[in-house]
Specification:
Largest sheet: 6 strands, antiparallel
Number of helices: 9
Shape: globular
Number of strands: 23
C-alpha cells in the first residue's frame, strides 16, 4: 500500500512525539535523582539537618556535664574532682537514673566515664574537670575493670583477671594476650578465678590464638617494690624517681647494695668501647642515640630501670619469659617458645647482642628487655616462698640440653630452662668489666 505525503507526515509526528516523551522521562528521572541526593546524600539537606540536630544535642549534653563538673569541683573546694560529687551534680541535670559514672582512662589520663542513658553517648571527665565527648559507647575500659576477650580469648584491652585493682595476687592481662591452661595451672577468664595454688604454680599467658604457637610468659608477683629497689636522689627525663636495685645472695635474707654488684650501671672497661655499643646500635637501629657513648648508655639504663620499677609497683609484678630467649625466624624479634635453640654468646653478639635482642619484642601494650638482677631475685624469692630450694639448685643442677622447654625436670613454677646448659645474662653489673651471668630475659609490663 502506497501512503500519501500527508499520511507519511502524520507517522513522522507520532515518532517525534514518542522520542520527546522518552527524553522527558529521562530528564525527570535525572532531576529526581539530583533532588533526592540533595535531600538525603552524604552532604544532603536532611543529613545536614540531622547532623546539626545531633551536634546541638551533644553541645547541650556536654554543657550540662561541664556545668555539673564545675559544681563538683566547687563542692570539693578546688581539689581533684571526686566521683561522688560529680555523680551528685550530674543527677541534677539528667535525673537519678539517667547517668552512670565510673572510674576510667582516656589516652592514659585518669578520670571518670560519664554515660548518658538516653543517648548512649559518653564523656570523659579528667581529675582537673576537663570534659571530652567520646562518642556513642567508644571508650577505653575503666582502669582495673575486666575487659572483654574476643572469640579466641584474646584481650583487646588491658584487664585484671578478677576486676578491681591490679595487685601481686590479681594479675593483669595485657592487650593482645590470652590466659593459657597448663597441666599445673588450670584457670580461665570468666569461668574460674585463679586460686593461691594457681598463682604458686605460675599463671601463663600467650600472644597466640587458640591452637596456634606463640610466645609464652609467666606472672611473677611482687608484693612490694621496696623488696627490689631503693629510691635514690633525683628523677630521670620522664620525671620518674631514680632507683637502685637491691640484690640478694639467698644465703641470707639480707639484700646487698654494693659498688661491686649493682644496677643500673655501666661497666667502664667494655661500655667505653665503641665496638660493643655498635653491636647494640646495629640491632636497635631506631634508638642509636641512646647508645652513643657510655654516658648515654648509663642514662638509658637508669630510665629503663625506673620505668620497670614503676610498672612493677603499679601492676604488682611482671611477666617473665617461660623459656630461654630465642629469636623468631619470622619476625626476627626476641621470642619465648619451646623446642628451639636459644640465643647464646658468640663473637658477634656477646652480652651486647643479647641485650639488644631482648628489647626487640614489643607490642602495643608491652615492652621487653633482658632481665634485671633484682627481677631475677624477685623470681627466686617467689619460688622460695613456694617451698622451692633456690639456694643450691639453680645454676648447679645444669642439664645438657640445647633446646628450649624440652627437659621435663628443668621446670619450676611453669618456668623452663632455669637449669639449662647455657649461663644466662642479666643487666646487673659487677666490678668494672663484668655482667652477672645467671638470669633470663623477660617481658616487662610497660603499658603505653
Amino acid at each position: 500500500m502506497i501512503k500519501t505525503k500527508k499520511e507519511r507526515n502524520k507517522d513522522m509526528n507520532k515518532g517525534i512525539t514518542l522520542i520527546a516523551l522518552v527524553i522527558t522521562i529521562i530528564v525527570l528521572l535525572i532531576l529526581a535523582a539530583v533532588s533526592i541526593a540533595t535531600l538525603t546524600g552524604e552532604n544532603g539537606i536532611l543529613t545536614r539537618a540531622n547532623d546539626a540536630k545531633t551536634s546541638t544535642e551533644i553541645a547541650e549534653e556536654k554543657e550540662k556535664v561541664e556545668l555539673a563538673t564545675v559544681a563538683a569541683l566547687a563542692d570539693d573546694n578546688g581539689g581533684d574532682i571526686k566521683e561522688d560529687y560529680l555523680k551528685q551534680e550530674l543527677e541534677k541535670y539528667f535525673g537519678t537514673d539517667g547517668i552512670s559514672v565510673t572510674p576510667g582512662e582516656n589516652n592514659g589520663e585518669e578520670g571518670f566515664i560519664v554515660t548518658i542513658d538516653d543517648s548512649g553517648r559518653q564523656y570523659f571527665v579528667d581529675k582537673n574537670g576537663n570534659v571530652e565527648e567520646l562518642g556513642n559507647g567508644v571508650v577505653n575500659p575503666p582502669s582495673g575493670e575486666p575487659g572483654n576477650p574476643d572469640d579466641n580469648g584474646i584481650f583487646q584491652e588491658t584487664s585484671t583477671i578478677n576486676g578491681g585493682e591490679a595487685t601481686a595476687n590479681n594479675p593483669t592481662i595485657p592487650a593482645g594476650f590470652r590466659p593459657m591452661d597448663t597441666d599445673t595451672s588450670s584457670w580461665g577468664y570468666g569461668t574460674s578465678a585463679p586460686s593461691a595454688e594457681d598463682l604458686g604454680n605460675g599463671l601463663v599467658i600467650t600472644d597466640a590464638q587458640e591452637g596456634e604457637v606463640g610466645n609464652e610468659f609467666v606472672w611473677i608477683p611482687v608484693a612490694s617494690v621496696s623488696d627490689m629497689a631503693n629510691a635514690t636522689s633525683g628523677t630521670d627525663s620522664n620525671d620518674n624517681p631514680n632507683y637502685q636495685g637491691k640484690l640478694y645472695t639467698f644465703t641470707s635474707t639480707e639484700a646487698n647494695v654494693t659498688t661491686s654488684y649493682r644496677e643500673p650501671d655501666t661497666v667502664s672497661s667494655h661500655d667505653n668501647n665503641s665496638k660493643y655499643l655498635d653491636i647494640i646500635k646495629g640491632i636497635l637501629t631506631d634508638n642509636v642515640a641512646d647508645y652513643a657513648d657510655i654516658n648515654t648508655f648509663k642514662t638509658t639504663m637508669q630510665e629503663d630501670y625506673n620505668a620497670m620499677i614503676k610498672s612493677v609497683g603499679e601492676y604488682g609484678g611482671f611477666y617473665v619469659s617461660r623459656y630461654e630467649m630465642s629469636k623468631s625466624t619470622i619476625t626476627n624479634q626476641a621470642a619465648s617458645v619451646a623446642n628451639v635453640t636459644p640465643l647464646v654468646n658468640d663473637s658477634n653478639n656477646r652480652w651486647y647482642g643479647l641485650y639488644a635482642y631482648g628489647k626487640t619484642y614489643n607490642t602495643s601494650s608491652v615492652e621487653s628487655s633482658m632481665i634485671w638482677g633484682s627481677q631475677y631475685d624477685a623470681m627466686m624469692r617467689w619460688m622460695q616462698g613456694n617451698d622451692v630450694d633456690v639456694t643450691g639448685n639453680i645454676g648447679n643442677n645444669r642439664n645438657t640440653g640445647t633446646t628450649t622447654g624440652t627437659s621435663g625436670t628443668d621446670i619450676i613454677n611453669n618456668i623452663y630452662d632455669l637449669y639449662g646448659c647455657h649461663y644466662e645474662w642479666t643487666l646487673e653489673a659487677t666490678d668494672t668489666g663484668l655482667r652477672v651471668g645467671r638470669g633470663r630475659w623477660l617481658r616487662q609490663q610497660l603499658f603505653t
